[in-house]
Amino acid sequence: MAELIAKSPGAGLHLPVTRGGATLAEWLPGAITSVAPFAGAGDKVDAALTPLGMGFPAPNGMAQGKTARIVWTGRGQAFLIGAPAPEGLGAVAALTDQSDGWAGLRLAGPAAADVLARLVPLDLDSFAPGTAARSLLGHMALILMRPDPEVWDILVFRSMARTAIHELDTAMVQLAARAAG
Amino acid sequence: MRIPCPLCGTRDRREFTYYGSEDYANRPAADAPAQAWDDHLHNRDNPCGPTRDLWYHDPCGAWVRVHRDTATHAVHGSDLVAERGQA
Amino acid sequence: MSGYRLSAGGLVDRSQTVRFTFDGLPFTGYHGDTLASALLGNGVQVVGRSFKYHRPRGVLTAGSEEPNALVEVLDGAQKTPNVRATVQEIFPGLAAQAQNAWPSRNLDLMAVNDLLSPFLSAGFYYKTFMWPRAFWERLYEPLIRRAAGLGRLSGRHDESRYEKVFAFCDVLVIGSGPAGLMAALAAARSGARVIVADEDARMGGRLLADRPEIDGMPGDLWAAQVLEDLAGMPNVRLMPRTTVVGAHDQGTYAALERVSLHRAAPGDAPREAFWRIVAKRTVLAAGALERGIAFCNNDRPGIMLAGAARAYVHRYGVAPGQRVAVFGTTDSARQTARALQAAGVQVAALIDPREDASTLEDFKVIRGAVVTDTQGRKGLRRVQVRQGSNTFALEADSLLVSGGWNPSVHLACHMNGRPVWDDGIAAFVPKPGAVPGLDACGAAAGRFSTAACLQDGLRAGLAAVADLGLAAPALTAPQAEDGSYDITRLWHVPGKGRAWLDFANDVTVKDVMLSAQEGFRSVEHMKRYTTQGMAPDQGKNSNVAALAVLADATGQTIPGTGTTTFRPPYTPVSIAAMGGGGRASGFAPQRFLTSDAASRERGAPMIEAGLWYRPSYFPRPGETGWEVACDREVRMVRSAVGVCDVSTLGKIDIQGADAGRFLDFVYTNTFSTLPVGKVRYGLMLREDGHVMDDGTTARLGAQHYVMTTTTAAAGQVMRHLDFVAQAHCPDWDVRMISVTEQWAQFAVAGPRARDLLRAVLDDLPDLPFMGCAEVGLYGIRGRLFRISFSGELGFELAVPARFGESLFRDLVGRAETLSGGPYGMEALNVLRIEKGLITHAEIHGRTTAFDIGMAKMVSPKKDCIGKAAAARPGMHGPDREQLVGLRPVQPGQRLTAGAHLFTPGEDVKRENDQGYVTSVGPSPSLGWIGLGFLKNGRARVGEMVRLVDHLRGLDLLCEVCDPVFLDPAGEKLRG
């Protein structure tokens, strides 16, 4: 039997790229499942997530387990990233497969926050490592995570990968050129 | 302009979509008289001073009721439309 | 020759010579020079011509408020007019030109205006260009436009880089003079996050211009020490070359940074950056601006503000003239005379209007005296002085003037707070609390001595720290000069000639008086009548004096006269900077289908659908134009099989115990009764009864639906669903999320659709029309829907997006073996028009379910959004324009969308309008056909209507027909 070829959102978009103190690379987070607890099922959702070493996150929250991460992504909604949904979760929360809906990018380095400050209207200095936020990258819907002080994980809609990379790269080019002056 | 999202915290106005007066959240009964529907859909005060209006925080999907002042531009606070009190 | 470079002194780097040109002539300056200081150092006195009278003008100030020395810099598309020479730093290769002078600044033929000045007084345009009315647009406006304006743009696209940046801090300090530095130090030492913004390239403010002694050391050295201290703290960001231009709501400040305008080779660095700074507290330490005195011919090159002259001497090592006279109402004038004397410049005299002024100086002091007039066309030669009843002339090539200082209150007034008159300093000061969280201090608050600035800055910094709940650091203000500010009011020296107030717009004392005389007595009226304060400097040099003159003319007090409204920006901001980052995909993101590359390889031109790019058609060799390709693709779908990427349609996953009930509420029809494995077309209204969107929704499980929306309305529908759920039924158990991007979805349509799917799927389920099922293919799981937007037997096959491109290539390749292939938007459009299927061309926001013939879809058994409003009078009935089909009476005639419909025989005018055309397309079997809305249209099927399109010159007869042109019984799609 023939096979369909899987293509990542960033394929052919010339990553990774390093300019000045920042590196932009495609980030392949693996499985992404949206988890929206049904009415009154908060405790049961936490219980179902326990095997992964995490609970349902608070707004702007993120929990990192050994293999997976759960990130708050909106009102009553979180993304389980990097592991399949554990047994029993589907009975207490609405689950959807989001693995193919998002383009993952990782921006890292000492200048990464300065790059993002060109595109994201958030106070990035106060963005504690280990937290996340929903916001905008330019005009694009954004899920922003800061797993480590100098690492920013970015999710934008898959179809916008090219624009997101272009906008981030432009910011990186200009920031590097400032430093060269 | 900066608007507090009860979930995400205070954010730049560009993250929000404006709808209008909080009246829109108070839907008349299906069999309410035509005048009640007229008022709900079309008749609005134009307050100079305290007002409460509806904004959608696009990033997180929350509808937010914002308490603000049209005269001073002060923003006093906000609550979730889904959990709004009837105050 | 007039100004010259002193043999020593200044903060410029004399070891680095910089070559530049002005009006094509080569000059040299030093690193650290502005264009103004370099030109003065080279003895250039005339730097430009005035706006209206084309009078020769020289440098007046040493800051961003400069009204005279406006130049054009850069060549090509980036040519930038109205650059203030007092701000522009020189760099190797800088090429600047004087503006508003023709043919040159030394010989300006437009200077004839100066001789005509008796006719060009305030209100000249208003009085002259009135009659006849027919001349307004054709003659007067072009004439006025040609004469007006300061400098010219290139007229080309500015392709250079600009950026926007977001920044946040606890304390924003605006200005880095003594007050700003103390405030910054206090805030920074408390641990607060501090941003210090200063519009100058070098921070230090008046400490650089006056170099007052602080704690026993020169002010510039003290500033350098503090700045070094601040730069070493991780919680401090120093932003030189950054002008805070606007104070906005909730502590948001706009700031313009000149990033590379001073660099010879900027590379990829942006020219400017537009910052949005959000601050919890703001300290306004923007200093004060010196004001002149209006006397006859006070605008000659060589006449400069006294404080500016000190800046040129101390900071740039440049003398403003060989022999200077100083005239002023405060000790700023005396200070200037001393500074120049100390620098070795010959001081002709200090002219002080105060009778009791001390004469104990090493230069001549003429007290109780005023300057009444000056001479020297292209450079000052002589100053006329009146002392008591004596009038005499004084030889001087430079006259330094001080009429007092105006605190820079602007930002404190941006939220509509008016400043307050302080009689003690004869100036306006900020009204406390006018901008929430903003505290003015130092000279910006009317405290002028260095010691007072240091102390007040410390106070403001500590106050901000206390507001933020941080512990105050141990910090005391250093020792410095603390003289009193003793001012004599003198706005205007009466005399015969013209005395300038607004140099940039050529507004004189007489103009303001004339304005009052002619009834424009309010300050806002005077401003607009005379144009005082409307030039690039926005009246920074002239506002207070002008309203003092107006107050005098109207018999009012100055505070009674009041100020005009202060609005952002504080200094001019280019539109390019404000729009920084907003070009191309920064303006609107581009969304690409997974099949994008495959479609482009086939030569498909792309068409924008919302933010998406979709293939318009797939040209074959030899095909000329879209219509040929479209025709072939339509026939292909009707006779074989076509493949089309429909992934752009919005897809919303809806789950929960109340999901069906919720859909019943947002759709006009019922979904709670839909069996699992079935799909239903749904119509969605706005609460005002008009159609919002339509689409199919499939039931995947007992509590699981997936809704499709139109491409353009996907975002709006999601927002609407969230609103209904959160506002009207927050207790229902419904969970929604967009899955638009998760699935790549392809329409497979045509009589051979099953053949194609059989080749791809593990098993083709026996789906009835409007059925759906999960399917397996190539080892993955997909979703198959039997739905059709073409009227043919049709399916839509969805797979996870990572496989989208591969599946598209596979489907298209296999379709071609079945005489099929891909089809684009043009064919899709024709196919759906032939079937009378609507898009947002029809449901454009003003049509009702009744209008589109779907009134019966509004279920009588339940409530839904929009139901009550849709039932109201006027939303249905024979007066409504209703959806109809249209075909030209003469076959082959073309139709256009946007054309209007009229009853044959009636005049083509608005009152007779019967409707309009929304969609048209060339059907291979029927010729051009269209959909439109016609008054009482359904009752008029078979009638003729006249279709008129004035824009595209169409006027033809059409037959009104049913909107479903083909297969009205739907036999093909059910087959």
Please describe what this structure looks like.
The complex is a heterotrimer of chains A (181), B (87) and C (975). Chain A has helices at 42-49, 89-92, 112-116, 161-179, and strands at residues 17-19, 22-26, 32-37, 62-64, 69-74, 77-81, 93-97, 102-108, 131-137, 140-148, 151-157. The longest helix of chain A is centred in the last third of the chain and has 19 residues, at 161-179. Chain A is globular, with a radius of gyration of 17 Å. By secondary structure, chain A is of the alpha+beta class. Chain B is mainly β and 87 residues long. Chain B has one helix and six strands. In chain B, the strands form two sheets. Chain B has a four-stranded antiparallel β-sheet, with no helix packed on it. In chain B, strands 1-2 form a two-stranded antiparallel ribbon. Chain C is α+β, with helices and mostly antiparallel strands and 975 residues long. Chain C folds into six domains: 162-289 and 407-467, FAD/NAD(P)-binding domain, CATH 3.50.50; 291-403, FAD/NAD(P)-binding domain (3-Layer(bba) Sandwich); 498-561, Arc Repressor Mutant, subunit A (Orthogonal Bundle); 591-648 and 742-832, 2-Layer Sandwich (Gyrase A, domain 2); 650-738, Aminomethyltransferase beta-barrel domains (Alpha-Beta Plaits, 2-Layer Sandwich), CATH 3.30.70.1400; 877-974, Aminomethyltransferase beta-barrel domains (Elongation Factor Tu (Ef-tu), domain 3). In chain C, the strands form 14 sheets. In chain C, strands 9, 10, 13, 14, 15, 16 and 30 form a seven-stranded mixed β-sheet that branches. A six-stranded mixed β-sheet of chain C has the order 43-44-45-42-36-46. A six-stranded antiparallel β-barrel of chain C has the order 47-50-49-48-51-52. At the A-C interface, strand 7 and helix 4 of A face strand 9, strand 33, strand 41 and helix 21 of C.
As laid out across the biggest beta sheet of chain A, the strand order is: 1-2-8-11-10-9
Topology, number of strands of chain B: 6
Structural class designation of chain B: mainly beta
| CATH fold annotation of chain B | Folate-binding fold
Uncertain segments of chain A are none
Low-confidence stretches of chain B: none
Show the largest interface.
A-C, 56 and 60 residues
Main CATH class of chain B: Alpha Beta
Q: What is the chain-wise order of helices and strands of chain B?
A: EEEHEEE
Strand count, sense and barrel status of the largest sheet of chain A are: 6 strands, antiparallel
Count of the separate structural domains of chain B: 1
Amino- and carboxy-terminal Cα gap of chain B:
25 Å
Number of helices of chain A: 4
Indicate the percent of residues in helices of chain A: 10-25%
Rg of chain A to the nearest angstrom? 17 Å
What global shape of chain B is seen?
globular
Mean pLDDT of chain B: 95
